[in-house]
Amino acid sequence: MSKWPTKDEARKILDEWVSNRNLKKHAYAVEAAIRAYASKLGGDPEKWGVVGLLHDFDYEKYPDLKDHPFKGVEYLREKGYATELTEAILAHAEHTGVKRDTHLKKAIYAIDELTGLIVAVALTRPSKKIADVTIESVTQILAVFFLSAEIL
C-alpha cells in the first residue's frame, strides 16, 4: 500500500479522534519539527508532516500501552494507508518493538521526545510560552537533569 492521507485529511482524522487541546498542540509541534528534518534528511516534508500529525492520534481514546499506537495504526491500515506511514507511527513508541531503521522512523522517535522536552521547558518559564524558550534554557534544564541523575 502506498496511499498517504493529505495534510488536510490527516488534520481531519486528528480532529475526529482528538478533542484535547494540548494533545493537538503536541501533534502540530511534532508536525512542524519533523517537516524541517525531512528537508534536511532528504525526506518528503508532506509525508513526514502527516506522520507528525498522526503519531499520537489514538492516544486520547487508547492511552494504555497495550493499545497505543496499535489501535490508530489498525484504523489507518483499514483505510488502506501506506505501510511506511503505519510503521513510522509504530516506531515512535518504544514498546512496539518496531526497529527505527529509516530516517523517518528515527526522526519521529526523537522529535516526539524533543518537543515534549521543549514544552516542559516552556512551562518552567515565567510566561509559560514556547516563544520564550531558548537553547540556553533547554541546556540548563538538561544540565540539571543530568546532574540529578548523576547524584542518584
Q: How are the elements arranged and paired?
A:
Blueprint: H1 7-17, H2 21-41, H3 45-54, H4 70-78, H5 83-91, H6 103-124, H7 135-151
Explain the overall architecture:
Helix 1 (7-17) runs parallel beside helix 3. The model has no long low-confidence stretch (mean pLDDT 94). With 152 residues, the protein is mostly helical. It is built from seven helices and no strands. The protein has helices spanning 7-17, 21-41, 45-54, 70-78, 83-91, 103-124, 135-151. It has one domain (7-151): Hypothetical protein af1432, CATH 1.10.3210. Helix content is 65%, strand content 0%.
Give me some keywords for this one:
Hypothetical protein af1432; about 150 residues; globular; 7 helices; mainly alpha
How do you describe this structure in short?
With about 150 residues, the protein is an all-alpha fold.
In one word, what is the shape?
Answer: globular
DSSP strand tally: 0
* Unreliable parts: none
| Main sheet: strands, sense, barrel | none
Q: Give the terminus-to-terminus CA distance.
A: 48 Å
Question: Class, according to the CATH hierarchy?
Answer: Mainly Alpha
Approximately how much helix is present in the residues?
Answer: 55-70%
